[in-house]
User: What shape does this take?
Amino acid sequence: MTVSQRGNGWTVEVDDGVIVWEFLQGMELSAFQEEAYPVYEDLLSSHDINGMVTDVQIDDPFDADAFEVWEKAAKRAEQGGLDRWAIVAEGITAISLSGKIDTGGLETLTTEERTEAVEWAGN
Assistant: This one.
């Protein structure tokens, strides 16, 4: 069964044990903290999720507060039993995210291809 939700600048879908987030152009950090993160907590608690994909369509540079939120999400994913986290991003965003986030014990993949990310996260 597929579950999906939307918010201010984000979408999320859970399908076959993989949670797929889209962070859309113009999304504010406050929308993640106040809207998306509580949904994330609920989904981790109520579904059997093994992997996560985050499709980052935001071009704005990430500051220290944003990286702190990403690391909080990674720690919660690991606590929730997730094994893999794939990040879909292009160019400098991909480089920035892959090199600066402490993902704990999660296996990670950074790619420009969403299909590759979903397949990898679900294995």
